[in-house]
Design goal:
By secondary structure, the protein is mainly α. It is 74% helix and 0% strand.
């Protein structure tokens, strides 16, 4: 990131080569519109190029990937808002979408086996809310836009997820 901040194109190209497939997969899990995903990818990496100097372990895990995902998730929210503003409903995440197993394993390794097991037992819609709010750090409003559901539904699902987690861990 330091090299990218200094304007090193080769470092930026390497960063893009290493991270863009992962970012694209995560975006596609949340948006079925390839055009929006492409626009979000472009906006994300343009933002990274312009603001690489601002990265100083800004993500929870202290990696550039976490910082990149935060930028991409916020750009996706912005894209959904622009689309909603133009009176087109945003493409909703698939109702049966499940958190990728790799993310489950990473989360389980970070927070412990019991918590990881409890997360994997949650219904997909509850896990999606927790993923957006806890892992991706989105607000209730941003989560509602991302998942294409009302804010009240996000709050209800978050509460149900907390109750289910509490019961699973007791």
């Amino acid at each position: 990131m330091r090299l990218v901040a200094k304007g090193d194109r080769a470092a930026f190209e390497e960063l893009y080569r290493r991270t863009s497939p992962w970012i694209a997969v995560r975006l596609r899990r949340r948006c079925a519109d390839d055009q929006i995903v492409a626009e979000v990818m472009q906006e994300t990496y343009l933002s990274v190029w312009r603001a690489a100097g601002a990265f100083a372990g800004a993500s929870v895990d202290g990696t550039a990937v976490g910082w990149l995902w935060t930028i991409a998730a916020r750009r996706l929210i912005d894209a959904f808002r622009r689309r909603a503003h133009h009176a087109e409903p945003p493409p909703a995440a698939a109702a049966d979408a499940v958190v990728p197993p790799v993310e489950d394993e990473v989360l389980a390794g970070v927070v412990g086996d019991d918590v990881g097991d409890a997360l994997r037992q949650l219904a997909p819609e509850l896990r999606q809310v927790l993923q957006a709010m806890v892992l991706d750090g989105l607000t209730v409003r941003e989560t509602a836009v991302l998942l294409g559901v009302p804010e009240g539904t996000v709050k209800t699902r978050a509460r149900r997820a907390r109750i289910a987690m509490r019961e699973a861990l007791s």
